[in-house]
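Batch job 17 of 40 flagged for manual review because the log was empty.
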Amino acid sequence: MHPTPKNAARRHSSEVPGRSVEARLEEAVGLAKAIRLDVVRAEIAAIARPRPSSLLGSGTVENLGELIAENDIGLVVVDAALSPVQQRNLERRWQAKVIDRTGLILEIFGARARTHEGRLQVELAALTYQRSRLVRSWTHLERQRGGFGFLGGPGESQLEIDRRLIGERIARLKRDLDATRRTRALHRDARRRVPYAVVALVGYTNAGKSTLFNRLTSSSVTAGDMLFATLDPTMRRVGLPSGRQVILSDTVGFISDLPTHLVAAFRATLEEVTEADIVVHVRDVHHPDSEAQRKDVLNVLVDLGFGESVEEGLIEALNKIDLLDPTTRHSLQQQKMRNLQGVALSAATGDGCDALLDLIDRRLGDDTHVIRLDVPLTDGKTLAWIYRRGEVLGRRDDDEAAHISARLPAEDIARLRHQRRLH
């Protein structure tokens, strides 16, 4: 169920563009189906004035209560943020379990987390959410289904956990995630010494990031037509047309109204985006709310510290052009051919993917050249400097020297020439 102000459906098209009420309801249904819920009914509930006790007006609560009873519905998802009091009151009136948008997203994340880090991050977000509503009971992660038990279910054990115990667990999780963050920082330092440029894919959930990632890397990362198909970050090495190697990173999808504490919990993972040399914004250009989704993604990137001018440095990958009509697709492709900021493509068919790799190559290849170097093995300082400043493509050592093939910026090559180390 998606609550909306009464005048939202009558909003004139000339106003500031935003997500339509119908699209928001469709997204909420998609979120429910992502956790394999059987959606019996989906309703838009108009709100004249949000009620502190129940969010919805008494008439709406009563009408929905009749619908819930008639259809023997055991779970109601409200696509909005509910206070603990609102959640409890609605459950009493409807005699059904009620969860809000945040609870549903956390349930999905709990089911999808596969890595140790992912599970830590989701548990931290879930505990932070749960701490504010100790009027409810907390259930541990179900081992078979996954998730965090906000949905209830047969066989679940209900444990009352007080604020002190939750606080202690949150503190422990934060320490573990800090250790993970330090490990990631060490990995990034190691990549800088190699170094490989990092290209991060970001985008609204279900925009096709994982499908594009698989297409570019010939991998088999989980990808599907569902919200939050990918949760844990994945990295693979990719060769560009020039022969340069880069690391491609697939990230968790963004979504509108993503809870602040959820972004905070995943900051360790999202730091990979902030440290990337190039960020590719993958957009579902076929989606009716593509523009609103674009703004949601940019807002999250600003929250991560990219600054208000974040859009200027992004590469836009306008995905799913195979779903457009031929005229629209051709127009979009011609437009992007004249625009070095983006590419129109289809991750499903591969159309336009070579153009994306070429654009990434051009962005990274400004004034760099491949050279051959002979460096004495005793000159460890210069060897370290080359690894730090350039991309070492090959190396062969003999008794006296390291014979290196490397890609370096023109100014660094000039420095080496001045030192007479270049052959």
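Reviewer: the log was empty due to a logging misconfiguration, but the result itself is present. Residues 110-175 form one domain. Unflagging and moving on to job 18.
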